[in-house]
């Protein structure tokens, strides 16, 4: 097995009396799309800043391309494309100017950058916006430009911190398509997200984080198979009745979670379970059968939802 591009062991980051990252371990292989999934405050962004060589660690070891980012920051950063959580583009400059100036920061030749800009404008679907000032772009366009900018130096690894936060559904799907194309080209992606569907779409493998620790690791489908059932039946009997009917419902399924507004029933066959509920003369106000997701994995591991 080839050596991983990123290797993290016992990584810990402490701010005063608060432990943001608590002794985590993971590897990222070349060409892999690796995710850090968890709610806000789980330690994902802190971990990313340490990987990006913009923050120091309290203890543990980190190796990126066989080098410690704390000791060889500039050398490591030269191989990274970084897409921060907040877009930090220059709003007064045009799309092309933002890409050009960023490329010059890396010491790339004018000839190389000009050719690269054409390639990246096409990738980001911004050819028609090349001479438009960034402040006039939509949120989705700015996000695509930030990713394109991170690719100017042809990095070995692209780090993306919450890449689609704040985007509408259409803009998110366009961005997923762009990132999936990078995956197909063999670019190594490391991303943080609190969107379960994003993790399922983009990640070959991921770690589920909560309160600075890793709760589980695996492929999205592998984690769902290990920690949840094939299907979930969501039923609502009304906020007053949910707890009242819960004991009877619990006898009908493999596992059950009672949320403030609904009951989740875990089963291999949601429609069959719904028929069983109807046969018991129980009539939910609403019902929905869906496949299990990483949200259910997180709920099983922590007892909380990702968006709490």
From TrEMBL:
InterPro entries: AAA+_ATPase, ABC_transporter-like_ATP-bd, ABC_transporter-like_CS, ABC_transporter_ATP-binding, P-loop_NTPase
Gene3D superfamilies hit by this protein: P-loop containing nucleotide triphosphate hydrolases
SMART domains listed in its UniProt record: AAA
Compartments (UniProt record): Cell membrane
A GO term from the CC aspect: plasma membrane
Pfam families xrefs: ABC_tran
Entry keywords, A to Z: ATP-binding, Cell membrane, Membrane, Nucleotide-binding, Translocase, Transport
GO terms, molecular function: ATP binding; ATP hydrolysis activity
Domain ABC transporter: 6-236
UniProt key word Transferase: no
Similarity annotation: Belongs to the ABC transporter superfamily.
Name listed for the protein in its UniProt record: Unannotated protein
Source organism of the structure: freshwater metagenome
